[in-house]
Amino acid sequence: MKKTILISIFLAASVFAIEGKKMTVYKSPSCGCCTKWVDIMKTKGFEVNTITSNNMNQIKEKVGITKKTASCHTAIVDGYVIEGHVDYSAVKKMLTEKPNIIGITVPGMPIGSPGMEQGNMKQAYNILSINKNGSVEVYEKH
What we know:
The protein has 142 residues and is of the alpha/beta class. It has one domain (17-141): Glutaredoxin, CATH 3.40.30. Helix content is 33%, strand content 25%. Strands 2-1-3-4-5-6-7 form a seven-stranded mixed sheet, with helices on both faces. The longest helix is centred in the first third of the chain and has 17 residues, at 2-18. It is globular. The N and C termini lie far apart (35 Å).
């Protein structure tokens, strides 16, 4: 009984830990798929501040995104970088577990990833964690 109550409290706390979190998203002024991704994050409870910029490469470089880990938009939340069309499941996992990484990324723009929906079409893709030494590892498979 006590174990069930503790698990319920932990699960509720992890959900409420996301709601109201402030996220800053940098995107180019003409990117529509970025706007779709931002809308998804808002429905999940994030308070999103969107900043449009024509210097996305400079922003990415500053936060540790390389050409091999880059996508279209760059988000910052709780000191972590979220690059591109990352699923909410991975964002929630990262913010709950708080790993010692720079952040997570979906390089490129895979069809079917959040914000890149095109009907029933969906490419398989990986969400990668970006380690502090610059190396990457698979964080989630989709």
